[in-house]
Amino acid sequence: MARELGLQERDLSQLLRGTDLPKNILLPGDSSHVNAVQQMRLLENALQLSASPEFGLGLGRRMQPASHGPMGYLVLSSPDVLGALEAFANFLPLRLPFSRVDISREQEWLVCTLGLKVVPDPEVKRVLQECFALMLQAIVESVLGRQVTEARIGLQHPEPAYHSLYAAYFHVPVVFSRAQNTFEIPLKLARVANTCGHSDSYALAQELCLALLEKMPTSTLTASDQVRRLLLSSPRGSLTMDAVASAMFITKRTLQRRLRREGTSYRDITEQLGADLAARHLLESNMTVDAVATLLGYCDTAAFRKAFHRWYGQSPSEYRASIDHAGLPRHASTPE
């Protein structure tokens, strides 16, 4: 919400008004709990600050799988569309305890239905319903690797005055004033395999990143720590420096200045993190070099090999072989 509003550090208190939440709850590394009443107040504040009734569309479009941290990995590690949707349905109540998503089969359709355990203000409810549909659209498209033009979307709220904008956000027509909020896809799409591939590898990557996150401090984080936490919380390659600065509610130039005061830079942090993750994946898993390159956001394995040689002075295969020859414990390697 704060990022969609374009808030900076000095403005964050406006979004938190009436919630009794501290400003640091919006910064990387904070693990404070936000209850349902506070979440509703946050949405009300956001709508007032935006003064834009179509705020929910912009907010929903921001909710790509990668923006959800662990949920991004759940989607990436799901074997097919149905698995990704089930992961989302299981995950959503942990983030929004007043909501649930039920998945059912009706004739030739797989139907996802949004349920709300509270009755929010109509404008807040409309925002939640728009976000629901946009999140599901993003999840299905992430797995398919293309726009989903076969879906059917029905929302409970009446057709809003800005309904003409929906075509810029949704890839199928939306039907309003429905009895339930539904996102439906043909059953034949439910078992379409995940185009990301390497599902087991993504699950291992998530475990490693979570383990590293647990070792990081959760309070008094430096700017460097905040950057590392953000990078570890998202699939590799999914965040740019601009996105990281935005997540910290500062400008790119301010981020550069703060990192420089700490004797480092964004490039230094990403390079060191990439080197650490690459070595750990080769040491602690049986993933191929190609799979490791994909996990670290490299479209070209040759580019990854070149980077690895810069980090360690040898190729990934030579590094793995040196570990084996040294007798260090690790899983059996897989032919590349």
Describe the 3D structure:
With 336 residues, the protein is an alpha+beta fold. It has 2 domains: 2-190, H-NOX domain; 199-325, Arc Repressor Mutant, subunit A, CATH 1.10.10.60. Helices cover 51% and strands 8% of the residues. Helix 5 runs antiparallel to helix 6 (81-95), helix 10 (223-232) packs across helix 13 (266-284) and helix 13 (266-284) packs across helix 15 (301-312). The chain is globular.
What keywords describe this structure?
single chain; 2 domains; alpha+beta; Arc Repressor Mutant, subunit A; 336 residues; five-stranded mixed sheet; globular; H-NOX domain; 5 strands; 51% helix
Please state how the strands of the largest beta sheet are arranged side by side: 1-2-5-3-4
Here the CATH topology of the largest domain equals H-NOX domain
Fraction of residues in helices?
Answer: 40-55%
CATH architecture of the largest domain: Alpha-Beta Complex
Please tell me the total number of domains.
2
H and E string: HHHHHHEEHEEEHHHHHHHHH
The pLDDT mean sits at 84
Kindly provide the radius of gyration, computed on alpha-carbon positions and rounded to a whole number of angstroms: 22 Å
Task: Provide a quick synopsis of the model.
The protein is of the alpha+beta class. Helix content is 51%, strand content 8%.
